[in-house]
Amino acid sequence: GRDVADFPKMLPSDVRFSGLIDYDRSKNYRFLISSQNNQIYLFDKKGNNLSEWGPKKIEKEIIRSPQHFKMGGKDYFIVFLADGAVQVFNRKGDLLNIFHTKEKKVFSGNFYLESGMSSTTTYLYYISKEGVVVKQNMKGEILTTNNILRGKNSEFIMERIVNSDKFYLYRVDVDKIAVFNMEGTIIFEKQNSGSTNFNFQCIETVNNEVVFSFFDV
C-alpha cells in the first residue's frame, strides 16, 4: 500500500478516462489519460509526460476512453468525440485521420477494433441507438450494416468480453432481453421482468465458457 517511487503525480485537471498500455509486452508501461477539459496525456512508467503529447488538446468533448490499437504492426490511438468525430493518432501524437460515425451519431455502449495491416483493413464495430450494427474502416468507409431492431422502444448496447477479442450485442425490450454474437445472429432470448435499465457484463471462463450478467439498476 506504499506509494511507488516518483508517485503520486498531480494533473492540472481532473481525470475522466485512463488506460494502461504495454506496446510490445515488455512491461515498459504507458499511462494514457484524458482529462475533464479534453486534454490527452501519455505518461511513461515513472509518470513523466511524453513531450510529443504535450498534453494533446482536443477541441471537442471526449466521450470514451481513448484506446491504443495496432495497425500494420505499428501503434496508434483512437479518440471518440461528442459530435460523432473519430480521430486517429500515431504513437508520436500526430493526427493521421478524422472521420465520422454513421450519421454523425454517438453509438451505444462499447466499441470493438479489429486490427489489420492498413487503414482499409482495420475495422471499427459499434451499434447505434437505433439498433444498426456498423463496420467501418480507419478511412471512415462504412462497409456493412446490420439492423437488429425489434420495436420502436428497443434499446441496444455492445459489450466486449473482459480480456478477450470478442464482443456481444444486447437488445432490451420491456418483455424480452436478447443477446447476439459478432455476426448479429441471436444466441438466446430471455423474458424481461419489465425493466430497461440494465448494466451488462460478459466474462469468458478458464473452460472457454461465456457467462452473461444482467444487473437491473
Distance between the termini: 32 Å
Number of E-type strands: 18
**Rg calculated over all Cα atoms:** 19 Å
Query: What structural class results from the helix and strand content?
Result: mainly beta
How many DSSP helices? 0
- The pLDDT mean sits at 91
Which ranges are low-confidence, i.e. pLDDT below 50, for 5 or more consecutive residues? none
* Oligomerization status of the protein chains: single chain
Fraction in helix? under 10%
Q: What is the string of SSEs from the N terminus onward? A: EEEEEEEEEEEEEEEEEE
Taken as a percent bin, the fraction of beta residues is: over 45%
Biggest sheet details = 4 strands, antiparallel
Strand order of the main beta sheet, please? 1-2-3-4
General shape = globular
Key terms:
mainly beta; single chain; 18 strands; 217 residues; four-stranded antiparallel beta sheet
3D structure, described in words:
It is a single chain. With 217 residues, this protein is mostly beta strands. 0% of the residues lie in helices and 47% in strands. The chain has no helices and 18 strands. A hairpin with an 8-residue loop joins β1 and β2 (30-35). The two termini are 32 Å apart. The mean pLDDT is 91.
